[in-house]
Amino acid sequence: MNEVHARHVSEVVNIREAKTHTRERRNDTVTSATSARKPKPRPRPKKRRFSDPAASYAKRLERYRPGLVTFTLDRLGERYGRPTWERRLDPTSELILTILTQNSADTNAEVAFEALRRFYPSDRPAEAHKPGSGWGGIGLSEAPPPDWQRVEFAPLPELTDVIRPGGLANQKAPRLQSTLRTVREGRGDYSLEFLGDMTALEARAWLTRIDGIGNKTASVLLLFCFGLPLLPIDRHVDRVLRRVGVLPPKASLEQAHDLVLSLFEPDLMYEAHVNLIQHGRKVCHAQRPEHEICPLRERCRFVDPKAP
């Protein structure tokens, strides 16, 4: 009986072990099949490197309209000459004069600046504004700049009356005082000579942090006072460049100031600015441009939408 029982127990154990072994083999098979079906992980896509939009646009323009920028500069140079840079005014005077020209004729801005000199005289060295090509006024007399502290702290109604002949005095008087205040609080005085030690973009960024100072005003100051490679885009420059097709039609003025940095060589920024302004004033008028005498007509998309 004991032998039968032992044999029976042994058989039961063997059966259980066989079932366990079969189950383990089945599980291994399922696991192996599942692993085989599981897709391999995809490699992570490489991060896309975004190029400089201005440089990309310059390459695209050169690809589809080769030599257009050089053609524009050369033709304008033949017509108006090759102006060379010469410092115009103290940078603080340049900044205030440029603010006075905003939405006003250059001649009116000169009248307002001369009034500031007379009403708030300083004992600083005299300076003269040589208008040169591209400036729409007659130039300033040789005289010391205004006393900027007196201008900043003048009663607002008084300052408004002083600059009223320049136009938009109610808007510009508080802007002048706010600008001078920002410079003084940031630097301890009214001098902007330190900007000449910065790169062009660093100096432009510093100036445009001042309320009411955009890329155009900042670029005017930095180009004319320090010769930094920036191209101020006023309405004349903008009109000529868009009509010819150097600038894309939908670019904003702020975008345009960045695009031209890759389009024009640094040492040609001054020449480009001055000659483009002259051409916009003398030939490429907003109304009734004189196509028949325009040196750019053969490649101007305003004259011929399919111009090369």
Q: How would you describe this protein?
A:
- With 308 residues, this protein is mainly α.
- The chain has 13 helices and 2 strands; from the N terminus they run αααααββαααααααα.
- It has 2 domains: 108 residues, Helix-hairpin-Helix base-excision DNA repair enzymes (C-terminal) (Endonuclease Iii, domain 2), CATH 1.10.1670; 136 residues, Hypothetical protein, domain 2 (Endonuclease III, domain 1, Orthogonal Bundle), CATH 1.10.340.30.
- It has a two-stranded antiparallel ribbon with strand order 1-2.
Helix percentage range: 55-70%
Distance between the termini: 112 Å
Mean of residue pLDDT values: 87
CATH class of the largest domain: Mainly Alpha
Second CATH tier, the architecture of the largest domain: Orthogonal Bundle
Question: What are its keywords?
Answer:
308 residues; Endonuclease Iii, domain 2; Endonuclease III, domain 1; two-stranded antiparallel ribbon; 13 helices; 2% strand; globular
Any chance you could write out the topology, listing elements then pairs?
Elements: H1 2-37, H2 53-64, H3 68-80, H4 91-101, H5 106-119, E1 127-129, E2 140-143, H6 148-153, H7 156-163, H8 169-187, H9 200-208, H10 215-226, H11 235-244, H12 253-263, H13 269-282
Antiparallel strand pairs: 1-2
Helix pairs in contact: 2-12, 3-13, 4-5, 4-10, 7-8, 9-10, 11-13
Quick recap:
Helix content is 57%, strand content 2%. With 308 residues, it is an all-alpha fold. It folds into 2 domains: 108 residues, Endonuclease Iii, domain 2; 136 residues, Hypothetical protein, domain 2 (Endonuclease III, domain 1), CATH 1.10.340.30.
